[in-house]
UniProtKB/TrEMBL annotation:
Any one biological process term the GO annotation gives: oligopeptide transport
Lineage: Eukaryota, Viridiplantae, Streptophyta, Embryophyta, Tracheophyta
Keyword ATP-binding applies: no
Keyword set, alphabetical order: Membrane, Transmembrane, Transmembrane helix
Species of provenance: Durio zibethinus
GO cellular component: membrane
Name this protein carries in UniProt: Protein NRT1/ PTR FAMILY 3.1-like
Amino acid sequence: MPFILANDMCERFAMLGFSKNMVNYLTIQLHMPLTKAANTVTNFSGTSSLTPLLGAFVADSYVGRFWTITFASTIYLLGMISLTLSATLPHLRPPKCEGNQVCVEANGIQLAVLYLSLLLAALGSGGIRPCVVAFGADQFIEEDPKQPKKTWVYFNWYYFALGVAILSASTVLVYIQDNVGWGWGLGIPTIAMALSIIVFLIGYSLYRHLVPAGSPYTRVLQVSIAAFRKRKTTISDSNLLYSNQELDASLSKDGMLLHSEQFKFLDKAAIVTEDDKLKSCEKPNLWRLNTVHRVEELKSVIRLLPIGAAGILFATADAQQNTFSIQQANTMDKHLGKGNFQIPSASMSIFATSSMLITIAFYDRLLVPIARKFTGLDRGISYLHRMGIGLFISILSTLVAGFIEVKRKDVASANGLIDTTKSIIPISVFWLVPQYSLHGIAEAFKAIGHLEFFYDQAPESMRSTATALYWTAVATGNYTSTLLVTLVHKYTHWLPNKNLNKGKLQYFYWLITGLQVLNFIYYLVCAKFYNFKPLHCQKRDQEHGDLNGEEMELAKMV
């Protein structure tokens, strides 16, 4: 595990070491307008969370998770090298502006180098994110029935390790970027990323490698087309649904998926008709006839989507931590005590990360043992309950953020600073701690529960792809933030480009709060009617019946 986690920690260290402070880099170093900079940050975060679909496809279909992580890390390293050069070489950034001098925005070539660097980083991240979490969880799958799966423990500590990387990036790296220079601030994570690739390769012989089972996208398309071709076929009790364990052996090492009654129109893809001309010991034409297991794979993926979509607005709220919350901090007194040291604006996220780390440790060591006595679940509470708690706390986070913004503006007004753009308002930056801390607590519940849900409920052969769906929700949330910022800026005066004091950022926070309330209600409905995947564990039937340990937990929860 140290070899696997080191790679992902370095990726997150590099990614967040830049993205946490990216809005300052774009506005101060490249002289971008605030709304354009905020949208660039969310677009980058969205793209780097959307590319995991591509990385998961390559891993599940062709080269496996190990080599996908290796190749993607190399691409990521190239992006970091390019980004470091763009921040170091004078001709790749606009000249500094001092005093009342008019700032010259970055030209086309300078922006092209920036966007190319971000694109390479996003592509590399797309191969690392979905594969590392699934590759690590794969190491915990035990064949021996006396060694039950403990992947829920892994997900807690996987996220804890990432939190340590985030904490380091939010403190050490951000301080270096603000006080030493962006060359060193980007060069250090670039070196760390290079070392992580070497460490990851050293552990090759220790890993449990799973052979790719073929393209999951192709199988989903085959089932869809086969069901469409047989759309006029009548489903009745006399229909035999096709099953072929030999054909599905590479897809179902942990157990075959059982037939479920949901989405019965897809069952037509597994009905054997005369037109199929199926002969014994002959592989069927999968574009006309599929096995029950493959049909149930598609059903499982469809069932994942509504729950997965509930994470979109959580990501939209999260995006504000790296954009407008930082701009709030820029206007506030950042002194730590009575000394001269000032906490960097982007380092305020340490309160979110610290809250997340404390919550994870508290959850794993205290809450789970206590909850286990009441629920009977090995994991304490189900991942659906865990996600719901996180979504509710996120509502409180943006609600509180709006009231804190009201307080900040009241102090600015009382001191006659509403019309100034560079004056520091005499209010401590630590007023922002509640909104950051609440979001960190929310993330500890929602994000880990979300990852657990996708990994556990996804078909075995599609776990990288399912994990990519988690990042797709994050991507969509970031793009949603871009859309909201664009529309709000166009039709209201809430988000001015130059003077945040003249805006009404609190209304924007409360708009997101209202959307999250609607999203929470939507999630409760989806969770209420969610059907867990039916799994027949072949290797444990004789000792444990038709249900494995995890499914017994889910049955108890239902």
